[in-house]
Design goal:
Helix content is about 65%, strand content about 5%. The protein has 18 helices and four strands. Strand 2 and strand 3 form a beta hairpin. The chain is globular and about 75 Å long.
Length: about 450
Amino acid sequence: MSFRLPSWLNVFKLPDDLWEKFSVTFICLVVYRAGAHIATPGVNVQALADFLRNAGQGTLFSLYDLFAGGGFSRATVFALGIMPYISASIVFQLAAPVFPVVEKMQRDEEGRKTLTQWTRYLTVVLCLFQAYGYALFTEQLPGAVASPGWGFRLTTVLTLSTGGIFVMWLGEQITERGIGNGASLLIFFSIIERIWPETLRTVEALKAHSLTFPVLLAVLGVMVLVVAGTVAVTVAARRIPIQIPRKVMGRGRIREGQKTFIPLRINSSGVMPIIFAQSLIIVPGTLATFSGNALLKRLADYFSVTSWVYVVSSAALIVFFAYFYTSIIFNPVDLAENLKKQGGFIPGVKPGAATADYIDEVLSRITFPGAIFLTVVAMLPIVISNVLNMPFGFGGTALLIVVGVALDTVQQVQQHLLLRHYDGFMKGGGPGGGGTRVRFRR
């Protein structure tokens, strides 16, 4: 009889290089969260937090604060977070279909290195502009800045820009030397940190009898179903079969034909359609907050979170950006050309243009249910909050990011373990299994 361990204990039997990756990831995340609680000099944090809690809801600042883990509202040295780096990456990603030079650079190793360097330079520029805008923004708030002026602005620009560049460096260290995608993990833990404050808000609502326990149970049940659905849609894919023909290797040897597939994800665009849609839909509210124009205020009322105009407009924008972003990141023509060069083909479809049209048609069909699911996930928290009058701090954007990053990180850990033949950790004990055997093959 062999000795068996619970599968979760096998994580402590990882080789040294994996422990090093976990250690680097953990240290970078601890440093990031520690810096997210160090205030910028000269800012009244309480005055800033009060403004964002009241007048700042439903504006670009509240959306930015979500990705900064509350650092924006607390005026920390990491108030800009990882968003300048992500914005710079998106700029070059969107530039590829427009500028053939950028698209060509993405296809070779040296070109990708150059684009990475350009992304860093653009991140520095964005940090400088956003830090200066942040300084002007805080100066306009009553009592937020003790000594406004150029001294405060220069100090804020230097502090926040340095913090933004340092956060970019932390993300790159996690990606290169740790586990998972660094930028995604930083946003992931920024969102996760909000669980405890939101839990306290829910408890306070229960004590104040503004929220009943049956309603809370119903909402928790809906959350469990939404999370399960999000996981299912995130990993769901349509497999297009690919046939690689036989080839004569010489001396009468024939290599057998291979059968494989192209996985087309139902939600290829990820969380980007929701981010783009929210960024556009909250522009009127942001302009109305700082301009004081009566017309803009009336327009902002139409696009408030509680209005049906907001829900309908957001749903339409999410569906539009789901198709738009998918068309940018996925090129059926290039895929068809690569298949043709390798001698591969889709059974029943001619190589070349016919293959590209077929893949584009399949992608268009499966993108629609993915876009509808994104719309439901994004709108459901708003509907729950409006109908049940319940504080709901986690919207569809946060939920999709958390689930997507968690799944991606787990898959990367599994790949590292498979490379080292740690099959005991991969095969979890079944309902009655209790555990698995740990084996290591040299």
